[in-house]
Design goal:
heteropentamer; A alpha+beta (381); B mainly alpha (258); C mainly alpha (170); D alpha/beta (175); E alpha/beta (610); B: mainly alpha; two-stranded parallel ribbon; 5 strands; 40% helix; 7% strand; D: 175 residues; Beta Polymerase, domain 2; five-stranded mixed beta sheet; two-stranded parallel sheet
């Protein structure tokens, strides 16, 4: 076997542009994703996203499982924020089947959704700071998030993949004393927020690096299909919980946090505000759950023999990444005929990222991607 | 996967006799090493076990449990384990859960670039027998068919404490000199290459000259070359392999509109 | 061949007079023999479905006969008796308050079984009564043992009766 | 849950349209293939349906058709309109609407990859996710993923000790 | 670097704020695994006592991770729905979603709080969970089934019934049956574990016909039923439903109403369609063989149906005016209306079976004639004579046998209805006659005076539970633990029955060994005493020489497992040889038909037929 000959560089065409593979093995990328950028010096003049590294063919194997069996699959679609996936799937099935979710289960779902939003944002605080080189925030964010995972473990029996929300409600009632422990944790989080601000949000270096990075205007955002915190960072107060309310969100009092900058900093500030709002919602949920009794799941037929009536439904949920949509079609059989998952990041991680990267500098690629909170498994499914 | 090689192929026995038939210096096995060599090896093992670098590559969904394991709550730095960005400097390759075929190619490339001795840990059910995605067309089912795996851990996904335990067990194995699954990649390269070609077609190859390395390290055994490596050679010399490599630099220009 | 049924009254007096163990066993063997011969003769007269049942009854009586004769031949009767007596046995009445029917010419299975049950019960009662009336000692032990044997046999018949009459031979 | 008046006016201007409410803040519109771009234009221009939430594709293999569903949302009217279009499965070609809604670029490429529907004029019909997949478009109903897996992969044949001594005693795994 | 906005210019001392961290609890946990939460989903536990091997966990597992392992040493009891196999779980597939735990009918499967298993050996990931847990360390239980997390529907659909006051004085049917919608709901509860198929003497394809009902295809359901049971109308009402005793859902909830679903299926298919379905596999060609069957009970007619479908010429001889045997003359109409029996028999006659009624074997036709006219003869005359306790006075004319009275009621022959009556016996027959008499009394006298005297205690009664409950609602009195002593007669008038207290019926080994308390005697005044203690067959029609030729065992004709007697051309089936219920009779009918068919077509070596 001869040793590999490397072509003589002199024979290559002269070019002051060169291509760089950013990922898939790169610490700055959240998950397994890559962007091929063409650089002119440090400035990016062309970016092409390349995903598919986390593709498992969810929508195909979901067609091969019973309605109830899919509740084990759906949380795995987006790893940092699994609860909206479970809730959206469950709600789409309920819309087709006409199932009535008891009030207590709805409040438990709101509690889970908001706790999961806090976890996802804490994780993004850490990640975003890491891409700027500020690792302390990563340590704090992930550790604080871990305390919330302990709460999830206590309620649902698993840290990350709860498999807790099922069509018709939730699988078990809350263990006693968990509401008090959540309140204590919220107080601890609120005590930590000032320290986060000192370290990160009011950090001069971060502000300088984040201002103007990956800026997009409100019109561009709306045109590009941006949703969630990224859209609110451009000043558009659009939130699925308010525009297309579901569960008991109409009864929940929270305000939509918006910024005007439209850049990485604004996006982080919106997320910080959303954590504060989420804490407010969780407190309301806890108060409601102390009053509302009753079952946590409506009467479900035997899962091995449950034919959902033919029909389709598009359930939209506000996940921490943006607008999450589950379009489910049933042909009256025991298994879904078609499930289409519209992840928020399928917009943010591909076309939006490619547009934002053009003109920005190579050291900002990771920060822009993390500030968009683009979660690759949502894109590849 | 148009021209698929033979469906099933028997994997040659693991432990080949020291001083095997192949060329190059015989593999240094425990008994014949000099006292001095054995002291140095044990000392090297001891030091290596205390400062393992994990390749920072989130291959699957289990990677979400790595930040807690590495950051302050479960802090694996206490036993000297920290993430490392590049394969060249990494010791451990964590396969955290399922591997889609596209990622499997990158994992094999990264694995071959890592310096021996290197260790592979399989997290969760997906690496053992397919896990949840057993009926998916897009994921590999058994990790130990494509790269040699030191330890598996049960879980879907394993908790940080479980990750701690597998890393501690790995440290123990390294100390005891048992963690040498990586040598198996050289000894039975044909078996691994066969499985890889079965997924990616006979033309699949990587720029690393594994057979040359096997000879260099002295792990060349009867399983290193065989029917699949012959297919590899037939696919043209190293130049062809470079041209046909997975990531031709011209791909980008083709699409850019001037 | 003594007419069936009346043999027992005279047996009571006969046994009363006999003192030694051998004599008692001798008379008991006599009763078993008469029962065995009675059933053997009856087997010939009944229709085939019942013949098997009656032959089994004859077989059981023959078994009894063998048991008692073995006991008789055993030199140390007293010793053997002691441990035989320990085994507990209680007295049970019949499921249908059975009276001893007059078998007549073509008795059916229920009639035969009721006759056999009544006969066993009468024998057991009689031995038990004799055991009460004799002082402590080998004779009393023998009578108790005989009573227990008859009771065990009756329990067996009771089970057969339930199977054939009540559950329709299922 | 009736159809808002303003929407009704717009819908009546277009030929071959059926619309019906489909739940809270949901309206379903069935439209002929050639009428869709016009419908999207009208909805976007007149009623503020600027947000294309998703384009879903359903493979009705028995009817030999693909059903494309365009979910558009209007921030003003707080309403989601799902426009359902049926196109023939062979040759499975349709027109791109990326000029009306920019996000369509991703969805069309995704549907092309997964179902093999070709969108004329789409910014890019290249593979994005399945670059390592040479098989047919996997989401089509005629592609059986289980059969493909059985042919391509082998399963672990577990031989733990407890199984061996159960087999020695005559037991074993039931098929 | 652009100049920093004043607001963010921290003072020199700002870093000192970090000193506050010195006094805070470190977040780092010790390097030991923490105990998991109370509902944690860890490695599986399985309570082998409760587990019955129904494999429902294997069905619900979305990752095909569970394999059933057959273990011969385990208890196996098809009648109670227990199979000697346990689930083994492949931790190379499992996703710990605990759907298997939530659907487990017996609640034996649960999850422990153990979550660490590290190994190089792949085989160690295939485990057979028991109570010890994966590594035998007995971790506490984590996720287990509770009422919220139960995926199974443990309540049965209500069966609409006539209220007591409406049914007390008439023989109209009590159960009104499921309407199609309720039937489909009830059928959806079935988890297809197949325990009922094993428990049923005729091995009916219950899972298949229940699934067909669930899919709304009642005709397919009827087709599945007719594979093994030509009496869906009858069995849908009066079967002893052993399948429901074995039903896995019955372990913790109410079993699936398998019997009533049979009825729902056949009630929703028009009679002509049922006939077409039942005769789908009728042989086109006649075999030219002739079979004579004595007794048109369930066994005889089942055999006739099978043989007719196989192309044989079948004639059934029945002594009573209408076919049906004990189904018609032993079961009152409020349980099984006669037109339902006729519907089933109509299907059988449509297969070409000729039934000759009012021809008693031994009187109108002899065994020799049967043998002459047919290549094979099947005896299925059943047990139609009542047993008497033969207690003193039991030969009085007012001491009647229950089966005779029930037959009279069906035949419509009038008999002097007693103002008060006493029934000896605690089985279904006793309650049938008691409730029939109660209806007749209410119609004749406006009040009910019937007392049932059962040997057994209230909780160990032989009769079905609903019989005992419904009879009490209709005014029938019940006294437990009474053994009959004697019938009290003054002059030639019957005064009543004397009974003694029965202390216990079975001894410790469970053998029948009644013990009485002689002193506790009760007197029950009654004008009639009805004995319902058992039945016997009347085989006098065989004649002397055939009786001698035949082999007998325990007073009944000896048959091989297929129902063939020692006489090559004679078979026997039904209660005559093997009881106790309709479904067993059907099962023996099938066996006999198959054996006859095999013999007639010479598949077995052609033993000298005649």
């Amino acid at each position: 076997m001869t040793t590999p000959q490397v072509p003589d560089p002199a024979t290559l065409a002269p070019s002051e542009e060169y291509d760089l593979y950013f990922g898939p093995n790169h610490p700055g990328i959240e998950g397994n994703y890559s962007v091929r950028v063409r650089l002119k010096g440090d400035v990016i003049c062309q970016a092409v996203a390349d995903g598919g590294y986390l593709h498992r063919g969810f929508e195909k194997i979901m067609e091969d499982r019973l309605w109830v069996q899919n509740i084990a699959l759906v949380p795995r679609i987006c790893v940092p924020d699994p609860v909206p996936m479970e809730e959206s799937y469950a709600r789409a099935v309920e819309m087709i089947g006409g199932l009535e979710v008891p009030l207590r289960a709805q409040w438990i779902r709101v509690l889970m959704l908001e706790l999961s939003r806090i976890c996802a944002h804490l994780f993004t605080f850490g990640g975003n700071a890491a891409t700027i080189g500020l690792y302390t925030n990563m340590f704090w964010g992930v550790t604080m998030r871990d305390l919330f995972l302990d709460i999830f473990e206590e309620i649902t029996g698993a840290r990350i993949y709860h498999i807790y929300i099922t069509p018709g409600g939730v699988r078990r009632d809350l263990p006693e004393g968990v509401l008090e422990r959540i309140e204590a944790l919220l107080v601890e989080l609120e005590e930590r927020m000032p320290q986060f601000e000192d370290l990160f949000f009011n950090n001069a270096v971060v502000i300088d690096r984040a201002t103007g990075t990956g800026r997009m205007s409100a019109e561009e955002a709306l045109a590009w299909g941006v949703t969630g915190p990224n859209l609110r960072a451009t000043g558009v107060a659009s939130d699925v919980r308010r525009d297309d309310p579901y569960l008991v969100y109409p009864q929940v009092d929270f305000d939509i946090v918006t910024e005007t900058g439209g850049d990485a900093l604004a996006r982080m500030m919106v997320r910080k505000g959303e954590v504060v709002q989420a804490v407010k919602i969780v407190r309301q949920a806890i108060a409601a759950l102390r009053k509302v009794g009753g079952p946590v799941r409506c009467e479900l037929p035997n899962p091995l023999a449950w034919d959902l009536p033919a029909g389709d439904a598009y359930a939209r949920t506000e996940s921490s990444k943006g607008e999450l949509g589950f379009y489910i079609v049933s042909n009256g059989g025991p298994r879904p005929y078609r499930v289409h998952v519209r992840g928020a990041s399928s917009m943010h991680a591909v076309q939006v990222l490619e547009k934002l990267l053009v003109g920005s500098r190579i050291e900002d690629v990771a920060q822009i991607m993390f500030s968009l909170d683009a979660c690759p498994p949502e894109v590849d499914r | 996967m148009t021209d698929k090689p033979l469906k099933s192929h028997v994997r040659p026995p693991q432990d080949t006799m020291p001083g095997g038939a192949g060329q190059g210096c015989p593999a240094p096995d425990a008994q014949t090493r000099s006292i001095w060599r054995r002291i140095m090896d044990d000392f090297a093992d001891h030091c290596r076990a205390r400062s393992l670098f994990v390749l920072h590559y989130c291959t699957g969904c289990g990677a979400i449990e790595l930040p807690p394991t590495i950051t302050s709550r479960f802090d694996m730095e206490r036993v000297g384990i920290t993430p490392m960005v590049t394969p060249r400097q990494a010791d451990i390759l964590l396969i955290t859960g399922y591997l889609s075929l596209k990622t499997l190619k990158r994992v094999i490339l990264s694995y071959e670039q890592m310096q021996g001795p290197k260790y592979v840990l399989g997290f969760g059910s997906c690496t053992i027998n397919g896990g949840m995605y057993w009926n998916s067309y897009a994921t590999m089912k058994r990790l130990d068919q494509y790269i040699p795996t030191d330890l598996f851990i049960a879980g879907c996904m394993p908790r940080p404490e479980a990750v701690q335990q597998v890393l501690l067990k790995l440290i123990e194995d390294i100390d005891a000199g048992r963690a040498n699954a990586w040598q198996d990649y050289y000894r039975n390269y044909d078996f691994y290459l066969g499985n890889q070609q079965r997924l990616f077609g006979a033309g699949w190859n990587t720029p690393t000259d594994v057979i040359g390395e096997a000879r260099h390290y002295g792990y060349y055994g009867p399983g290193t070359e065989g029917e699949h490596t012959r297919l590899l050679a037939e696919g043209g010399g190293s130049a062809a392999r470079l041209a046909h490599a997975e990531y031709p630099s011209t791909a980008l220009t083709g699409r850019i509109k001037s | 061949m003594p007419r069936h049924g009346e043999g027992h009254e005279s047996a009571h007096d006969k046994l009363k007079r006999a003192q030694t163990l051998e004599e008692i066993l001798e008379t008991a063997l006599g009763f078993e023999a008469t029962a065995r011969d009675f059933y053997a003769e009856l087997a010939g007269r009944v229709s085939k479905p019942l013949r098997e049942l009656v032959e089994e009854l004859a077989e059981e009586e023959k078994e009894h006969y063998r048991l008692f004769s073995e006991l008789k031949a055993n030199p140390d009767i007293a010793g053997a008796l002691k441990e035989l007596v320990e085994r507990p046995a209680e007295d049970h009445r019949f499921s249908d308050f059975i009276q001893k029917p007059d078998l007549g010419e073509a008795p059916d299975d229920q009639a035969i079984l009721q006759y056999a049950l009544a006969r066993e019960d009468a024998a057991a009662k009689q031995y038990a009564a004799l055991a009460q009336s004799t002082p402590e000692g080998p004779v009393r032990d023998l009578f108790t043992h005989l009573a227990k044997e008859e009771l065990a046999h009756k329990a067996e018949l009771e089970k057969r009766y339930y199977e054939i009459v009540h559950s329709g031979g299922v | 849950m009736s159809i808002p008046a303003r929407l009704n006016e717009v819908l009546n201007e277009l030929p071959a349209i059926q619309a019906r409410p489909a739940g809270a803040r949901r309206v379903r519109v069935d439209v002929a293939p050639q009428g869709l771009p016009a419908l999207l234009e009208l909805l976007k221009g007149r009623l503020g349906f600027i947000h294309l939430s998703a384009i879903s594709c359903v493979d009705w293999i028995e009817d030999g058709q693909f059903e494309l569903v365009y979910h558009v949302w209007s921030h003003e009217m707080k309403l989601l309109v799902s426009c359902h279009v049926r196109i023939a499965r062979e040759p499975g070609v349709y027109v791109s609407v990326h000029d009306i809604h920019e996000p369509a670029g991703f969805f069309e490429r995704d549907i092309h990859e997964m179902f093999g529907v070709h969108f004329d004029g789409a910014p890019s019909m290249e593979k994005f996710i399945l670059t390592s997949w040479e098989g047919p478009p996997p989401m089509r109903k005629d592609f059986n993923t289980r059969k493909h897996v059985e042919e391509t992969f082998e399963w672990v044949d577990y031989r733990p000790d407890w199984l061996k001594d159960i087999e020695r005693k005559g037991g074993g795994i039931e098929s | 670097m652009s100049d920093i906005a004043p607001k963010y210019k921290g003072s020199m001392l700002r870093p000192l704020k970090a000193l506050s961290f010195l006094f805070r609890e470190p977040a780092t946990l010790p390097m030991r695994p923490r105990p998991a939460a109370k509902v944690y989903r860890g490695f599986h536990l399985n309570d082998w006592e409760k587990c019955v091997g129904c494999a429902t966990c294997q069905q619900i597992c979305d990752n095909d991770a569970i394999r059933m392992v057959h273990i011969p040493a385990l208890p196996s009891d098809p009648a109670k729905g227990i199979r000697p196999r346990r689930p083994a779980i492949d931790y190379g597939r499992c996703c710990w979603c605990a759907l298997c735990v939530d659907i487990c009918p017996t609640g034996s499967l649960s999850m422990s709080r153990e979550y660490i298993h590290v190994s190089r050996d792949v085989d160690s990931y295939f485990i057979l969970p028991d109570e010890e847990g994966m590594h035998g360390v007995r971790y506490p239980q984590g996720w287990a089934k509770d009422e919220n997390a139960d995926l199974l529907d443990l309540k049965r659909q209500e069966m609409p019934e006539e209220p007591p006051q409406e049914r007390a004085d008439n023989f109209s049917e009590i159960c009104e049956g499921y309407d199609p919608q309720t039937a489909m709901l009830e059928a959806s509860r079935c988890i297809q574990c197949g325990m009922c198929h094993d428990a049923c003497p005729a091995h009916m394809h219950a899972p298949e016909y229940i699934r067909a009902i669930f899919e709304g295809d009642f005709e397919k359901s009827v087709a599945e039923i007719y594979r093994t049971n030509p009496f869906p109308q009858v069995c849908g009402r009066v079967c002893t439903h052993r399948c429901e005793t074995a039903c896995s859902i019955g372990k913790r909830g109410e079993p699936v109403a398998i019997r009533w679903l049979k009825r729902a299926a056949v009630d929703n298919v028009p009679q002509d369609r049922t006939i077409a379905i039942a005769l789908k596999d009728k042989a086109k060609t006649k075999t030219g063989k002739r079979v004579a069957i004595a007794g048109a009970g369930p066994a005889g007619l089942t055999a006739a149906f099978d043989l007719a479908k196989l192309g044989h010429e079948v004639t059934v001889y029945e002594e009573k005016p209408r076919p049906g045997g004990m189904m018609r003359y032993g079961i009152p109409e409020y349980r099984l209306p006669y037109e339902r029996i006729d519907a089933d028999i109509a299907v059988i006659e449509a297969a070409g079976v000729k039934i000759r009624c009012n021809t008693k074997l031994g009187r109108d036709v002899t065994m020799a004639q049967l043998k002459g006219q047919a290549d094979a003869v099947l005896l299925s005359t059943g047990l139609n004579k009542g047993r008497s306790t033969r207690i003193p006075g039991s030969d009085h004319p007012q001491v009647r046998a229950a089966v005779d009275l029930l037959a009279r009621i069906t035949l419509g022959e009038a008999f002097d209805i007693p103002a008060s009556a006493v029934v000896i016996g605690g089985g279904n027959v006793a309650f049938d006659i008691a409730r029939s008499l109660a209806r007749l009394q209410r119609r004749a006298f406006g009040k009910v005076e019937v007392t049932v005297l059962a040997l057994e205690e209230r909780d160990k009664m032989l009769a079905d539970e609903e019989e005992v409950i419904e009879s009490a609602q209709e005014g029938v009195k019940l006294i437990n633990g009474r053994g009959p002593k004697q019938v009290v007669i003054e002059g030639d008038a019957l005064k009543g029955l004397e009974t003694v207290k029965c202390l216990s019926i079975f001894d410790e080994q469970g053998r029948f060994h009644p013990r009485y308390d002689e002193t506790d005697v009760m007197f029950h005044p009654a004008q009639m005493v009805i004995e319902a203690i058992g039945q016997m067959s009347d085989v006098s029609f065989l004649g002397e020489d055939l009786t001698e030729q035949l082999e007998w065992s325990r007073g009944r004709i000896r048959i091989d497992e297929a129902g063939r007697t020692s006489v090559p051309w004679l078979w026997a089936a039904g209660d005559l040889v093997k009881g106790p219920d309709v479904i067993s009779a059907i099962a023996t009918g099938h066996a006999a038909a198959a054996s006859i068919h095999a013999a007639l077509m010479g598949e077995t070596e052609a033993r000298e037929a005649k």
